[in-house]
Amino acid sequence: MTPENVRRIALELPAATEKSHFGKPDFRVRDRVFATLPEDGNAVVKLTRDQQEMMCGREPALFQPVDGGWGKQGWTRVILATADEAALRSAVVTAWRNMAPVTLRKAFDLAGG
């Protein structure tokens, strides 16, 4: 997968926008960042700590906590070179759901998202 795949998947989600976070592209829902594209060619998504532990434990070649305090807050690196479409979509959608307001999440879920 590529950063362009991340961008496409993220921007397909309701109310998602692309902005910039510390000079790097990021994706937001109602101005809350749910994913970023750092310069290393991977993606970073905002998971809960439980989601992060599960995903990193199950697929350590694909998901890794971000170093330092950000990783302890659930920010998780997605290694795009090893990701497939389903895994990337799952991670990005999960991050979007974590940051989206309840009313938007409910509308998305009712629409089959």
UniProtKB/TrEMBL annotation:
InterPro entries (alphabetical): YjbR-like_sf (IPR038056), YjbR/MT2646/Rv2570-like (IPR058532)
Domain of life: Bacteria
SUPFAM superfamilies reported in the protein's UniProt record: YjbR-like (SSF142906)
Protein name: YjbR protein
Organism lineage string: Bacteria, Pseudomonadati, Pseudomonadota, Alphaproteobacteria, Hyphomicrobiales
